[in-house]
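Renewal narrative, Specific Aim 1. Our central claim is that a sequence can be written position by position from structural information alone. The example that follows is taken directly from our test logs and has not been curated for this report. It begins with the structure tokens describing the chain, in the order in which they were read.
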């Protein structure tokens, strides 16, 4: 398991932007594909909403990654 803390400087970040910002997705389109595959979970629940707002404290799981949103 690769655990990373991803620092955001805004109140929230949308899931598709977050995956790109964290370096998981290469483009916005790639983010969309990853989310549509149903392999991304937010706080333990599979998420298909690419516009889901993530706030500090939220945890995103994808494959071997555990990404925590921090501010």
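The sequence written for that structure reads:
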């Amino acid at each position: 398991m690769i655990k990373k803390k991803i620092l955001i400087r805004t109140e929230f970040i949308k899931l598709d932007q977050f995956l790109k910002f964290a370096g998981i997705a290469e483009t916005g389109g790639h983010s969309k594909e990853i989310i549509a595959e149903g392999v991304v979970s937010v706080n333990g629940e599979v998420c298909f909403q690419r516009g889901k707002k993530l706030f500090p404290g939220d945890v995103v799981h994808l494959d071997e990654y555990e990404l925590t949103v921090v501010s």
